[in-house]
């Protein structure tokens, strides 16, 4: 559809429409023209990732997670966060196994589970009082519903924190409750934290792997593309205990051998600089948080007075826009798709040249009606 109907603004896919920041651009130029880096063009490298990159990541995440991360044993560099998620699920999930996830969910996960013939078990995020959420952190999960979701077939719990698409950040109390159940049922936690620094309150993101007893059962996935607007370079990483990462490491080696060394060299240079600036006013991460907040508020203001309901995100880079109150003012008769969510998406694309993503793609079949006229 995007090829047939070029957009003026593509808000759906989440890729930046601007260059990476200057340090990243300088690193790209340095790698491209520096003769001392010839080896990155010549051959593949360590399947765990470039040693210098793992060392830089270990320094960064030792500070962020407030514990020592072993660069040689507890980090594996992957071909983007996608591959990290895929290899984690491929390593530990067999056909018929159940995986718990919170709804709305990152839709790619359901596709990966389908490839493994696994069974997704959905736990909805709702307001505790049944009222409409005004901001994403108004949403939580029913504690009894989560307890009931665990069975003897449950092998993994996937948590996207901060959540894509709605921007919820889970509280310490919520994460402790989740962790206690995972420990009780001996379940692996797959923590997707690619938006961990796209937050609006520096104290609001808690990493579940850092909570008591959780390190030994948690695989944390991160993305260099999301952190530094380098999506096209396809560099992500997984962090966790050596025994959980071993099969991921082997899966990577026997599929692609190693991630592009050129991409890794660029990211190494960027993270080494950020390690020096961490927690200072010059840190890119400080800028990222402020810039994300500024963009959120600007987009929120654009919807004022339109009748479109917005759940105010507490993190992330997306807005969840509900057109239900104004749908009768929109003529969708030209859109013949039987899926109503797609009809609105196609109308916005064709008539307004706005690229969006149908909101119902983040819900299970039984709950798609909750996002019938919602777009991300």
UniProtKB/TrEMBL annotation:
Q: Which GO terms describe its cellular component?
A: mitochondrion
Question: Residues in domain Aminotransferase class I/classII large?
Answer: 42-359
| Record key words, sorted | Aminotransferase, Pyridoxal phosphate, Transferase
Keyword Transferase annotated: yes
Mind telling me which InterPro entries this protein's record contains? Aminotransferase_I/II_large, Kynurenine-oxoglutarate_AT, PyrdxlP-dep_Trfase, PyrdxlP-dep_Trfase_major, PyrdxlP-dep_Trfase_small
Pathway listed:
Amino-acid degradation; L-kynurenine degradation; kynurenate from L-kynurenine: step 1/2
Q: Offer one Pfam family short name for this entry.
A: Aminotran_1_2
According to the record, the segments passing through the membrane are: none
Q: Which cofactor does it need?
A: pyridoxal 5'-phosphate
A GO MF term = kynurenine-oxoglutarate transaminase activity
Could you say which protein family the record assigns here? Belongs to the class-I pyridoxal-phosphate-dependent aminotransferase family.
PANTHER family attached to this UniProt entry: FI04487P
Q: What is this protein called?
A: Aminotransferase class I/classII large domain-containing protein
Source organism per UniProt: Medioppia subpectinata
